[in-house]
Amino acid sequence: MNEEKKISGIQFASLAFISRIACAFTGIPNLRTNLPTSDRISVFLIGLLLSLLLALPVLLFIEKENNRGLQNREKPCPSGIGRIILIFYAAFFVGAGILAVSRLGVFASGILLQKNNLHLFTAILIIAGAFCAERGLEPTARVSVLLSAAVLGGLLFTGLCDVGKMKLENLSQPFAGNIPIIVREAFFEACMNVELPVLMLLAPQIKIKKKTHLLLWLPLCFVCISAAFAVAAAVAGHYADLQVFPLHSLAVIAKTALFERIDDLLASLWVSCTVLKTGILLYTAYVAARTAVPACKKRCFFILTGALVFGGYLLLTANIQFFANVLQSAAVPVLFLFATVFIPLFTCLKNGRKEHKEVAKQ
Amino acid sequence: MKILAIFLCFLLTFTGCSATVGTQLSNRLIIEAIGIDAQEDGFLVSVLALHTQQSNAANATETQDSIGQVFSAKGKSLSEAFAQIDLVSGLVPLYSQTRVLIFGKEIAENEPMQALDFFIRNYTLRESILLAVADAKASEIIETELEKNTLVSKNVQDILESGKNNGLTVAVELYQFVNRFLDETDAAYLPVIKTQENQSGKKEITHAGIALFAQKNLTAVIDKDAAKGLLWTAGLIDNDLLSIPFKGRTLSVAVKDCKSKIRLHKGDIPTFSAEIQFSCDLIEYNTDDTLLFNLQELEDVNRELQKQVQKITEEFIRTAIRENGCDCLSLLKKLRNGQPAYYAQIKDKQTDYLKDAVITVQISSEILKTGREVVKPN
Lengths: 362, 378
Hints:
The complex is a heterodimer.
Chain A: E1 7-8, H1 9-26, H2 39-64, H3 80-112, H4 118-135, H5 137-162, H6 179-190, H7 195-202, E2 206-207, H8 217-236, H9 238-242, H10 246-253, H11 262-292, H12 298-316, H13 320-328, H14 331-361
Parallel strand pairs in A: 1-2
Chain B: H1 2-12, E1 28-39, E2 42-50, H2 52-56, E3 68-75, H3 78-89, E4 92-94, E5 100-103, H4 105-109, H5 113-121, E6 130-134, H6 138-142, H7 152-161, H8 163-166, E7 172-173, H9 174-182, E8 188-197, E9 203-214, E10 217-222, H10 224-233, E11 240-246, E12 249-265, E13 271-285, E14 293-294, H11 295-323, H12 331-338, H13 340-346, H14 350-356, E15 359-369, E16 375-376
Parallel strand pairs in B: 1-4, 1-5, 5-6, 6-8, 13-15, 14-16
Antiparallel strand pairs in B: 1-2, 2-3, 6-7, 8-9, 9-10, 11-12, 12-13
């Protein structure tokens, strides 16, 4: 597969959509704060605005660098700082992969495989993700378009099945809860958009007419996730607040005369979403790593990072307390801000000064 | 390599059957119904499970044995009792097929939430399981011996689900009950079932009203007539059968497309209105006089039907809401969302507020068909 083959804007949007939606489905919304499910809509709305704000440095970087990508700035070999930054990104994406796989691990341990050893399941999942990454961006993106259609269809079908069970009075007024907590949750939600720093490295491989088109997936994700949570709140009310995975509960409640186990069909889609997410994160990590360390061999890299992800998953999911502590820690948003805001701004500033000096010299 | 990778990915999608990996079906205790009764120091759990070897047999219908088997065990907690049942049966329990969960009356009267936590927390139990209250002991219902090859669980499920079409009872799923139960304003409700002897002396299961829960405990059990009012007012039925006196005889109509909407009318003193709409077909009029109706008579029938529904709903509002303070119609929730300042004033005296709340019932109906008998001109 030719890695340099570019993907279309729609293909990237579906990749980012799948990656973000995997996080929403397998995430535990009430792990940090116990917000009513209907307040989640406010959380996602503010989260969208914050995400758009946080995306500005990335867009600025892509614009200033003329869509070269972080890895191509200092060719043929990056400088010391450039190398460190690229290694940081590679590690960041592998870390994000560990979180994604661990989220699914926690989901699977409760919903899919209660009494069986999960490790084999997770190992197969990581192998599948690494295989996607090894194939490259374009095949993974093609699969993501099909998967996006299936996920959207699945969500729509679940929603339609639940329409008759919705009670609007179960929805509280917007911003009825504690506003500082809602804003804090929104910030954490915005920091889950690991697809933004992915753009720093993958932008050169995306055919786009306008830079802002790179963010079209954000409102789509907002609409889908908010709609899903709104339906969950309207159907199950307080019951959804008690649940670890309220969207899964919603799928269990949804049933028609013909289909009674929609949740199992959807769960298989969510597993596939996590496979693609792992694939895209490992691929992006590879793009960063191969520039920082040109001797890096593709297969060796994926074997090594796959093993790292598996090890990280084992460590993170050893007990729910540790998992919750990691997700609640400030390290996740700090690293995200570093990758999404600080480094792009720092790079743009450094380049601006360099250009200014060159102009002054001339 | 490619094919192997695709095959491995495909394996990941087999999630539905994964919970049973490693356990043969014949080694599973496929639970159909669960009954929970209070004990001095904990719970008595009765479980109706499929007799797997019997139900798997090709000649199951010809066997003398029942396709269900009942296990009972006591425990300080439900999980302890279930563990006892696992020991007794020697099988691995499969909760996901459970159709109904029945509480004994004593459990319902004394903090039913303590018996519910196990079911909310358990991953394998589905949210859509039906709940009911036994008018005495849940174990009596579970142990009822019905006709050959009829499972109590299926029978109870059919009875509860038929409420949507006959207006006699209500089907409440686990998540619906928990949602209403945990809300500070709503009153939860569950159908009540009991066993009785039929004319041939055999035991049968039937509905016996609706149990209302306010302040987290069973507050009252309303009879079938008031229960019908709840179903009509809360929009919980699609179809029903109404019989009304008309010109000294009984006239029956099949109600279709019944819809109800509760509205809050904001103001200095907020009021509520229940708007009920339905259409119906005339199906029987047992008169020895002329059978045909004219248009004027149909109008009179329509008016009588509306009066009948008005009576049913007002009886429910009087019994459940005003006398027992059970807000089964989510009136206070509507008030809380629609006029929060007013709700804050009455928050601590909800029962008193409900006693005097202005609730009007507006009914509109139409007769669609008169069967195969023609309508006379006026």
